[in-house]
Specification:
The chain contains 12 helices and 13 strands. Helices cover 35% and strands 24% of the residues. Helix 3 (65-83) runs parallel beside helix 4 (101-117) and helix 5 (167-175) crosses helix 6 (184-195). By secondary structure, it is an alpha+beta fold. The protein has helices at residues 3-10, 21-26, 65-83, 101-117, 167-175, 184-195, 201-206, 221-232, 240-244, 260-269, 285-295, 309-312; strands at 27-29, 37-38, 44-54, 86-96, 122-129, 133-143, 158-162, 211-216, 235-239, 276-280, 299-306, 322-325, 331-333. Strands 8-10-7-11-9-12-13 form a 7-stranded mixed beta sheet. The structure holds adenosine-5'-diphosphate and magnesium ion (MG). Adenosine-5'-diphosphate is lined by residues 7, 11, 31-34, 92, 94, 122, 124-127.
Amino acid sequence: MGEFDLIRQYFASGGLAGQGAATLARVVHGIGDDCAILAPDAGMQLAISTDMLVEGRHFLPGADPARLGHKALAVNLSDLAAAGATPLGFTLSLALPGVDEAWLRSFSQGMLALARQTHCPLVGGDTTKGPLTLNITVLGQMPAGQALLRSGARAGDDVYVSGAIGEARLGLAVALGEQHIEDAALRQRLLMRLERPQPRLALGQALRGLATSAMDLSDGLVGDLAHIARASNVGMEISMAAVRNTSPIWNDAQLRQWPFEQQCFWGLSGGDDYELAFTAAVHQREAIARAVQQTQTPVHRIGRVTARAGDTAQGSTSHHPIWLEDPQGRLAPAQLASFDHFK
Ligand code: ADP
Ligand code: MG
């Protein structure tokens, strides 16, 4: 099977079948010409995000291809969600060591199922031979000037996260054999959280004009919140118990035996959550609750934004902008590092 047959067979449909008129109208030309031609709606700005996934680096060799296809697109859509964007489409650049049709079938099905579900058709890409590497670029749109950024948090704002933080990281520990979870259903839940993140697109769009800042969580909560804090020139005080309590798994007979700090570790410094973290003014609490209801997305308030962190440290020289509050109400600067490929 040659390059063009491969594209035609597995990718050219683009997940466009069954899409509504609005989605179809935005794709003037999809796969097959020199460029994809898209038509954003009037008055909208373009949102663009790109993510590369390398075998052995971002996913385990031999990873299930359908789940890999899903996750590769999901992590990109999560960036659109964080900006409050609506998807327009995506491109896929693929380096493959060879043509494995069973692999390609599962991979493209997993990816295009999510593309259909999120109205984000595949509109182009590139295919080459090489060590298994995926690069996706997602394109989205939002009303001009309404993108959610990392830089708008203000002292006094509330800090929120969507979903259950830390479960994906515990799922990774299970997948790697580093942790044994006795309850089979719980084990399955954790693995699904690792392998099938659900991009919070509806929530992100509902937060436009409400949240003062937002980002998606990929590298670990504390490190990711520090990006918002630095971009906004503020600090944050985060309740360790509130972060832990975003997940119900600590009621499990085995996991509730773990010491508090160990329970908190996964949510604070884990990664792969692909949930949204955002800040909003206190007077917006009711509006946030309505957005939560309307989008049926679980959201938890985990802390508050403070004036610049290093300045409020009681005798400490640390300038880490994120401070953690323990159950006794004591504050300490967070020491937990997040994931960095070059460290
Ligand atoms: P060009 O030589 O102009 O770069 P290609 O021959 O690489 O074009 O690709 C032909 C068409 O197939 C283009 O429309 C391109 O966007 C699309 N395409 C190539 N690879 C992929 C892929 N992995 N997924 C989706 N579309 C692809
Ligand atoms: Mg090409």
